[in-house]
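So, can you check this record?

>
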Amino acid sequence: MKFKRLSFLLFIALISQGLFTSAAIASNAPETKPPVIEVIFETSAGPFTLELNPEKAPKTVANFLTYVNEGFYNNTIFHRVIPGFVIQGGGLEKGLKNKQTHSPVENESRNGLKNSRGTISMARTTNPDSATSQFFINVSDNSSLDPRGKQPGYAVFGKITDGMDVIDKIVAVPTHAVDGFNDVPKQDIVILAVKQTQFAVIEFIPGEHYIVLDEPVHTRDSSKIEVVQAFSYGCPHCYSLEPLITNWREKQVSDVDFWHFPAVWNKSMALYARAFYAAQALNITEKIHLPLFTAIVVDQKRLSNQSELADFFAHYGVDKKAFDKAFHSFATESQVKQAEARARSYHLASVPEIIINGKYRIDPMRAGGRQQMFAVVDFLVDKERALLKK
């Protein structure tokens, strides 16, 4: 695999997905030193700045930045404060409510970085590879947290470069025990916002990070940049992409025309596509889209025929006769056939996939993961935006 101005952030993201071997890294890595990656925390006790170390902890940094750039840490709290030891946060909201996280990251504690004062490390359970979003900041030199012999430690991935006085202020707050949690601050210390201050320019390569369609597909509004998501209600990966899609959509401006459609290439996908278009005809798409996804993927409910789907829709106030009429309408039938034809014209290999302006197709594996798909999406949207302005 050849690099063409591939940013270090993408590089570490691809490492975290296991897409590079050590030999490939040695032969293809850029010789220039990667840019400094800084993250600023705004807290109710004041701001502090982190400098991350992707060279020593590439997978951990990629994992941490995923949460940062999703806004995951905003309005979470420091829920554990121990003088002379650590302050811990990154996973609980006020009221000690847990937030849903992504999959755990591999332990990188044997990277040579020590749990010394002012460093940041990943919190975890007794399982070394169980860290997700929670982190802690060392307020003392904690060598007991470093790896010893065959025993892994806690992975250090950065350090405080400004605002250590804020950390000391947090560690001085009174604490108590609440609902089985020890060392909880009596007054909430809230993480108001977390922002990355520097982003490297990325140039993604056709054929490596995305596919160029042999024949462009007509878009519904040539004055805008069309972004189309292909999904299926029976696809767990599509379900896990939903919050990322929602977050991405909320940041777009008026020149982006986003929509999604249910891909069809087998009977079960056709059934779910009928349900999707029936919901559109009944004007309840917003109300039923996520519950239907959850029922099929998470709850594993049996929704394998029209009658079972009608019962499900009935729980959301839809009359069964109205559902049956929409389910078998000429419009629904036509839309399902169009979805099947569209899947062929895009040459879909899987779901979820995202198509940009009828020209480019992006899948999670080629992009480097579901989170990294959106870096490629933004790159191609900007590419098409530049063409529109000419």
Remarks:
- Confidence is low (pLDDT under 50) at residues 1-33.
- The longest strand covers residues 86-93.
- DSSP finds twelve helices and 16 strands in the chain.
- The CA atoms of residues 277 and 331 lie 8 Å apart.
